[in-house]
Every structure is written in C-alpha cells, then in structure tokens.
Amino acid sequence: MSAEPGQVISGLEGVLACESSITYLxxxxxxxxxxxxxxxxxxxxxxxxxxxxxxxxxxxxxxNAGELEAFDHELRRLRHVPVELTRLLEMIxxxxxxxxxxxxxxxxxxxxxxxxxATGRAANEKKARRMVAQFPTAVAAMARVSQGLDVLRxxxxxGHAANYLYMLNGKRPDDASTRALDTALNLYAxxxxxxxxFAVRVVVGTLSDIASAVVAGIAALKGPLHGGAIDEAMRMIxxxxxxxxxxxxxxxxxxxxxxxxxxxxxxxxxxxxRAPHLRNMCRALAESSGEPRWYDIAxxxxxxxxxxxxxxxxxxxxxxxxxxxxxFPLNLFTNFVAxxxxxxxxxxxxxxxxxxxxxxxxxxxVGLREQEYAPAERS
Length: 379
Fold this sequence. Notes:
Elements: E1 23-26, E2 33-36, E3 39-40, H1 41-44, H2 50-59, H3 65-78, H4 83-91, H5 98-111, H6 121-146, H7 160-169, H8 175-188, H9 195-205, H10 210-221, H11 229-240, H12 246-255, H13 275-289, H14 293-309, H15 315-326, H16 333-354
Antiparallel strand pairs: 1-2, 2-3
Helix pairs in contact: 2-16, 3-6, 4-6, 5-6, 5-10, 6-7, 6-16, 7-8, 8-13, 8-15, 8-16, 9-10, 9-16, 10-16, 11-15, 13-14, 13-15
C-alpha cells in the first residue's frame, strides 16, 4: 500500500516501510504462507534444529554440516553469563514485570561487553550470536531466582533447546520435550515487520548499537497488544478448567463480547501458518507426559470457537500449553518469545545496517495554529 500525499494510514497497516530478504509472509492466501529466506515454515518447523534456523536467518543461507557444527560450538561457548547477572536478578523486586527484568538484563549484559561500541558487520554478527546464546540463560536464571532455586550453569554437552530446558528445570529433557521446544523456538524466531522488529529497525536507523536496538524490541514486545497474548491464552485455558466446561465457558464469553486470547491475527486472515505445528507439539507433550487435560481443553475450545465464530487459533494459543507442559512459569511466556525472536531482531538489524536510511516519518498536524502568545502575569 502506498499512501497518497497527506494521507494518514492508521497503525501503518499495509504500508511497505522497507525491502527485506528475510521473511515472506502472505496472510491473505488460503492456506497462508510463511517462509524464512525462501523456505516454507511447514518444511522446517518440526524438523530443523533452532541452531539451523538461527544460522539461516542470520547468515542468509542454510548451513552445511561444517558451518552448522561451528555455529553450534560457538553458541555453546557464548551461553555463559557473568555471575553479576544473577546478583542483579536477585536485586530486582518481585513485583517488577518479567519483561522489564529481561529488558534490564539485556542492557546489563551489553554494558559488560568490552566491544560494545565496535561497529561493522563482523562485530555486529558477533554481538548477535552472543545475544542468541545468552537470552535463554538469562530467562532460565530469572525462572530459577523467582522460585528461590540455584541458578544452573549451561551444560556444554547439550544443544540449544535441550540446554534451555535443563537450565530451566534442572534435569536433562526427553526427546519429545526437546523437539517441542526446538519447534516453538523455530516458529517464534522471526515474523517479518511486527511492532518489535520495526522498533529494532528504527533504532538501527539512527546507527545506534545492535544491543540498544534489541532492547527496544524487548520494550515493544512487552506491550500486551504484541507479546502478552501468550500469557493470557494459558490463563484462559486454565479458566475453562475442564472439557465439560468448554461450551458454557465459550458461550458466556461470546455473549459478554470478551476477547478470546490466542484467536485471530492482524496479518493472517485464513489461519496462522505456525499454529498447526504447535498443536502437534502440544499433542506429543500431552501423550509423553500422560497429562492430556490441557491439550484436550485447548483443542476443544479451538474447535468450538471455529464452529461458532470461524476464528482460527494463532501461534500463541498452542504455544501457551506447550510452554506450560515444558515447565516455563506462566509469567515468563513472553520472555521465552523474546529469547527466540532475538534471532529475527538481529537479522533485521544486520539487514538495516547493510542498507541504512534514517527512518523518519511525518505526522499530519491537527492542532491549533498561529496562536498569539502572551507571557503569564506574575504576582
């Protein structure tokens, strides 16, 4: 969409703000299409490791075996965070918003980087990889501190997803849990020019450092209209409580015109391309854990809402019970999203640096003009 001179497009909906080779998204086609660097999400979501997806997004191409091994080794080496971060997390009051805590932790880690002001592609790629490696360590540490548990050091023998779960729960995960988390990480890694990614590109446009840009992304994701839906989706599923309560609960919610969290999407009109994969992971976790309750409620609510309103579930809807099964505290669901989306933010930051132009839109002024100013009388 191109705006006519003087035309205001509220929320910039449909406005093309930049060119990008990272993600292709067509939410109007049936079925909807989501591709990372030309690879359809249906071909990679449940089969690729997060390390492969991160490399693809950051480097612009699939890694070969040697490149993937080197990238994986680097991420494992970069996972460790200074002990000062744990002390910082212990100082933050319990009433602080978890995303505010992550925002603070990300900024703190950037301040500890002796090369924080280094510029150029190589320096920015190095910083991006460090953030990709360290964000799960920080989120897991937040979870442990909030529960009064010892913060665990990363396990160098485990891959990215398995280590994330180990640092979170204190035990090595089974294959079903690792695959589920890998899939969730893959699906949240990138999603074109959403609010947080646009914030990242705006900051990079000023030629500020990449860590500052990612902190801006965290700040935008913190907003309930962007990142908070995943938390509320799980609260809704918990509020339903049982399969027998699905129909009366949904009927009451629709009668009261309540917003159903995890349904519908600003871009996807025919269904979120990511949602079916997390539904698959939710089913697998329900089977492996022997606790089908949350999966049964989630699928029952989705089916009944589709029947009544023809509104499809989005990625957050099934991500919520998946993260619950995996042991993530409810108030850290959005933090998990940030620990994945840092890849997409970094990819967009690198792309913006490579072809930068200061992002400086205008407003259409609607206030008073040519007012006469008289100094206030002093007593």
